[in-house]
Each structure stands twice: as C-alpha cells, then as structure tokens.
Amino acid sequence: MSATVASRVIRSSPYRDTTQTWTAIIELLTRGKAGAERDELLSVAGVASALIAERSPKDAAIVVICDGPRTRIYCSYDEDAIAGHDAREDALGYDPLSGNWTISLPCPADDLSWVQRALKTKSSRITARDATQPVNAATSDEKSFVKDQDLAIDTEAFLRS
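RESULT FIELD:
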C-alpha cells in the first residue's frame, strides 16, 4: 500500500527556540484552530521541544498519519534556519489531523525509553521511535512522494471512460 506524502521544513534554532518551533508545528497541524487536538499537542510540548533541541527532526521526520495524506515535518538549524532557503512552512491543503491520527516523533536511541514513558502519560496518539528507524514499512515507499503537493490530472484519460 502506498501513501501520499507531503513534506514541510520548519525553521528552528537559532531562528526560533525549540518551544517556538513546536508551537509552529502545532499551528501547521491544527491549522490555527483551538480544540482537543491542539490541547493534546500542547501537552507534549516539553518532550517534543527536548527532541527538537536534540536535532532529531533534522534528518528524521516527525511523521503524522491520518485518514488523508501522510505528513513529514523536518526542522532546519543553524545557518539553514537563519537563511530559510529550504524552509517550507506554508499551510497544508488538507487536515493533517483528520480521523484517527497519530504522530511519531524521532528520538535518539539513548533517550528512547524515557521519551516513550513520558509521552505515554500524556497521549496515546503521540509516540516516539528510534530516529534511525522508519515509522513502518509503508513509510519507506517514496514512489508516491508529493513534496510540493503539485498534483496533475490527466483530463483526457479521466474523460475516456
């Protein structure tokens, strides 16, 4: 089974501190709306900020799985964060928290046990994984990767039936 994937890069340290970075990610995921999802994301702010400080989401994505497209969120740091040339912080064209959503945070292997315990007390939807491991086998299928969400419809083929 392949999944459509959208990607975003959020500017982190020193452009934003780690808490501000997590807040920017929350804004992206909740589309600026208040509610239970936002509260749940805010409840893990300390743990998520610690992982952002460890630079885990630089090379390993924060992965959001929902009833729609899969979302991968990376963070940029240092000069890349200041320059912002690789940043992609624009809104998603869908609700990344629709239906039965989950979030997998990348974590250094040495911190994995305490991070998983801490997250478990706050949320059943937000978990941590070893940053060197994929979320599951389906995440490694990049054939349907849609980086910029530029979709094209072949209208001739569509109308041929």
